[in-house]
Specification:
This protein is an all-beta fold. The chain has strands spanning 12-17, 24-29, 36-37, 45-50, 56-61, 71-76, 83-84, 91-96, 102-107, 110-115, 123-124, 132-137, 144-150, 153-159, 167-168. The protein has a four-stranded antiparallel β-sheet with strand order 4-5-6-7, with no helix packed on it. It has a four-stranded antiparallel β-sheet with strand order 8-9-10-11, with no helix packed on it. A four-stranded antiparallel β-sheet has the order 12-13-14-15, with no helix packed on it. The protein is globular and about 50 Å long. The N and C termini lie far apart (49 Å).
């Protein structure tokens, strides 16, 4: 029997590229067609992350605003309705909670969480002298995973989304 040809995956990919001279957020179909510059402005925009329902994209930008710096913004999937979400300079690496209600991110070696609608303030979960990075939600949404340490001496940790019960899982 011949092997059936798999159907293409129907999805839209978000990525950053500097093809236009500075880093911008683009979307495209899985086959590479329909490339659209979503952010299209002079600042660098990068590290896009889709919301679980596909309606929004969180990203990092150093665009001009009242307080210069690098912050996380959220926009609709078509590039409209851009709004600043974080106010800690150096914000990076956003990751959505599985229900879309919150994001975790890193800023200056600390792990934060913030409500995705912008209500309330961000919460520093780690407050540690170590450098924490790359926070992400666990597949079941009950834990945050992150790295902590310096350069080549980093370990993986997990904690509750409120910052409690920090557990080192690698050594």
């Amino acid at each position: 029997l011949p092997t059936p040809t798999p159907e293409p995956i129907a999805c839209t990919i978000a990525y950053d590229s500097d093809v236009d001279g500075n880093r911008e957020i683009y979307s495209m179909a899985a086959d590479g067609s329909n490339q659209v510059n979503l952010s299209n402005q002079p600042a660098d925009d990068f590290d896009p992350a889709w919301s679980p329902d596909g309606s929004q994209i969180a990203f990092v930008s150093n665009r001009e605003n009242e307080t210069p710096g690098q912050y996380i913004y959220v926009m609709n999937a078509d590039g409209s309705m851009v709004r600043q979400l974080t106010y800690e300079d150096g914000s990076e690496l956003p990751d959505w909670s599985h229900d879309g209600s919150a994001l975790t991110y890193t800023s200056n070696g600390e792990i934060y969480v913030i409500k995705a609608d912008g209500s309330g303030t961000s919460v520093n979960l780690t407050k540690s002298p170590e450098k924490e990075h790359h926070s992400s939600w666990s597949p079941d949404g009950h834990l945050l995973v992150f790295t902590s340490g310096e350069d080549q001496n980093q370990n993986i940790y997990v904690m509750n989304p409120d910052g409690s019960n920090v557990l080192q899982v690698t050594n």
